[in-house]
Amino acid sequence: MLAASFQVRPLLVRAVVQALQAIFIENRHADRVIEYVLRQNPKAGSRDRAFVAETTYEVVRYYRFYSAILGQTPTSEEHFWQLIGIHLLLQTGNEEVFRLDELRALRPDTIRQRATEWRQQRAYRESVPDWLDALGQQQLGERWEETLAWLNRPADVVLRTNPLKTTRDALQQRLQAEGIQTRPHGPADALVLSRRQNVFQTQAFREGLFEVQDYSSQQVAPLLDPQPGMR
Fold first, then answer.
1. Nearest residue to 212 via CA among 224, 226, 227, 202
2. Which stretches does DSSP call E strand in 36-128?
3. What is the C-alpha to C-alpha distance for residues 192 and 99, in angstroms, rounded to an integer?
4. For residues 65 and 127, is the Cβ–Cβ distance under 8 A?
5. What fold is seen in the domain 158-224?
6. Of 58, 156, 223, 231, whose CB has the highest number of CB atoms within 10 Å?
7. Domains of the chain by residue range
8. What's residue 21's pLDDT?
9. 3-state DSSP call for residue 8?
10. Domain 10-120 carries which CATH code?
11. What interhelical angle do 63-70 and 77-92 show, nearest 10?
C-alpha cells in the first residue's frame, strides 16, 4: 500500500492511464499491457515500476467501486485520470494528487462521501458483479463476506525452487545477493517475495534455479508423487 507521504509523479500516473485505457477500452490482457508500458519506460527505477504495476492492478481490482464513485463508466482519458485520483485519495488520504491539472475538477470531500455510501453495498465495495455476489451468498452463506474480502487481497508472489539445480536455502541466499528478499513457505521448495520485484531479470532465473508458481499449484506434484519415466 502507498504511504500517505508518497510523491505524485505525473509521468507515472500517465503510464497508468495508458495501461487502463488499453485494458478497458481496447480489451487487452492486463499482464501484457503492464509489460508493454514498462518497456516504454526503460529508465524507470524499481519503485516507479512497482507504482505503475500495482496501481494499475488495484484500479482494475476495484474498477466497479471506483466507477460508482466517479458516477459513470470511464470512456475517456480524462475519466481514467479521475479513477486513479479516486484510488490514490482513498488509499493514502493524501490530497496532493489533486494539484494535477487533470484532477482539479475532483473534490476530495465528495469522493470520500460517495465512497462511504457505496461501501454499504457489498457488490460495489468488493467490485464484483451482482450475479456473483448473489451466487456466493447462496452457496457460502455467512462465509461469503470473509471469502470475498480475501479474494480481493493481492496474492503473494511465490517462487518454486528447482531442486535439480539448487536448494531452497541456497536459492534464498543467491536471490538476496541480487537484491531480492524472500522468506521460506511450507516444508519444501517455496519462497515468498517480501515485496513485488521483477525476478525475471535475475541471473538466478536465467540459470533456471526457480520458476514463479503459486503455492497451491506447487502442492500438486508432491500429492501425485510422480516417478521417473512417468508421463
1. 202
2. none
3. 38
4. yes
5. Alpha-Beta Plaits (3.30.70)
6. 58
7. 10-120, 123-154, 158-224
8. 96
9. coil
10. 1.10.940
11. 110
How many angstroms separate the Cα of 160 from the Cα of each of 35, 104, 219?
22, 46, 11
**Joined grid coordinates for residue 94:** 493524501
> Which pLDDT score, from 0 to 100, does residue 1 have?
52
Contact 199, 193 (CB under 8 A): yes
Q: How far apart are CA 16 and CA 38, in angstroms?
A: 10
Minimum mean pLDDT range among 34-38, 61-65, 79-83, 169-173: 34-38
Residue 193 C-alpha cell reads as 517475495
Q: Give one DSSP letter per residue of the chain, joined into a string.
A: ---TTPPP-HHHHHHHHHHHHHHHTS---HHHHHHHHHHT-TT--HHHHHHHHHHHHHHHHTHHHHHHHHTS---SHHHHHHHHHHHHHHHH---GGGGSGGGTT--HHHHHHHHHHHTTSHHHHTT--HHHHHHHHHHHTTHHHHHHHHHTSPPPPEEEE-TTT--HHHHHHHHHHTT--EEEETTTTEEEESS---GGGSHHHHTTSEEE--HHHHTHHHHH---TT--
Write the single-letter amino acid at 83.
L
Quick check: 104 and 96 in contact, CB under 8 A? no
Q: pLDDT tens for residues 28-43?
A: 999 899 989 988 877 7
Calculate the alpha carbon distances from 60 to 5, 24, 108, 215 in Å: 23, 9, 21, 23
